[in-house]
Write a structure and sequence with these properties.
One of its GO terms (molecular function) is structural constituent of ribosome. The protein has 110 residues and is an alpha+beta fold. The protein is built from three helices and five strands. Strand 3 and strand 4 form a beta hairpin. The chain is elongated and about 65 Å long.
């Protein structure tokens, strides 16, 4: 059985979040927490919060042992893109895409 936690509309590109997701996939929750606390990426802070939420869901909702938990699945998918304009030369406007992400972390017992 898996316990999941979702983070929606986070204002970081999914490409940047996926780098940090690859670091913790398959690791134990304690090891993944240590990795996220020492990774100097912007995505590591919201992912750490999400990992703690998934572990709490496993313990409280499914009665799993917190010592045996590992990150069974983690991925980031694109959310809606916030579109902005940037003034450029000769009256033109260039589009700036501010990307958002939906992140899912699932933990299971080993």
């Amino acid at each position: 059985m898996e316990a999941k936690a979702h983070l929606r509309y986070v204002r970081i590109s999914p490409r940047k979040i996926q780098i940090v997701c690859d670091l913790i996939r398959g690791k134990s929750v304690a090891q993944a927490t240590a990795i996220l606390m020492n990774t100097p990426k912007a995505a590591s802070e919201p992912l750490l919060k999400l990992l703690k939420s998934a572990a709490a869901n496993a313990e409280n909702n499914h009665g799993m042992d917190p010592e045996k938990l590992y990150v069974s699945e983690t991925f980031a998918t694109p959310g809606p893109i916030i579109k902005r304009m940037m003034p450029r030369a000769q009256g033109r406007g260039y589009r700036i895409n501010k990307r958002t992400s939906h992140v899912t972390i699932a933990v299971a017992e080993r």
